[in-house]
Amino acid sequence: MVLQTIPARIRWAVDVLDVQPADQILEIGCGQGFAAELICSRLTTGRLLAIDRSESGVDRTKRRCAKYLEAGRLAVRHIDLATLRVPVKRLDRAFAFNVNLFWVRECQDELALIHERLSPGGALYLFYDAPRADELLTMAEKASDALVRAGFEVSVINNSQPLAIGLIARR
Question: DSSP states of 47-95 as a string?
Fold first, then answer.
C-alpha cells in the first residue's frame, strides 16, 4: 500500500497541539490516519485514542499506523463521540479536524464529556479549513459559541497557507 503524503494543514494542526511524549490524547474523526501517524511518532509513554464514525476511516487509520497499534501507543475505535466511554481518567488533549459535529448540530453532551475528562491545563482543539474565508468564519463562530456554552474559554489561531483556523478551548 502506498501511503499518501500528510497534508500541510494536518502538519500545522499537530504542531499546534504541541504533543508531549506522555500525553493522553483523543482524536475525534481520525479519517485517513494522517494526524494519528504524526502524533504517535511523538509519543513514548503516552497514548492516542482515535475514533471515527466511519468504518473505512478506522480501517485506513489502522493500516497507516499499524506499527503504533502494535507498540501500544494507539487505539482505534469505530464509534461516535456521543457513545464513547473514554478509557483514561484524564485527557491532556482532545482534537478534531473538520468535524462538523461542533458547528452543525447541538453538541453539548459531547462537549460535556470532553470537559469532564480534560486534565487541569488540558485543552480541546478544533481545526477547520475551507476554500473561502467567509465559510471558515461561519464554522469558527458556530463552534466557538458551542464551546463557550459548554463552559470553555476559547482562543483562536489562524493559518493562512492553507487557509485554516484553530479553536483552543480550555476548562
Answer: EEEEEES-HHHHHHHHHHTHHHHHHTSEEEEE--GGG---SSS-EEEEE
How would you classify the pairing of strands 164-170 and 153-159? antiparallel
CB atoms within 10 A of CB 171: 16
What is the largest distance, in Å, between two alpha-carbon atoms of the chain? 44
The pTM for the full model equals 0.94
The CATH code of domain 8-170 reads 3.40.50.150
In which element (H, E) is residue 166 found? Answer: strand 164-170
**Is residue 94 within 8 Å of 26, Cβ to Cβ?**
yes
Domain residue extents for the chain: 8-170
φ and ψ at residue 72, rounded to 5 degrees: 85, 10
pLDDT in tens, 67-116: 999 999 999 999 999 888 877 779 999 999 999 999 999 999 999 999 99
CB 68 within 8 A of CB 36: yes
Helices and strands per DSSP (H, E), number in the chain:
7, 7
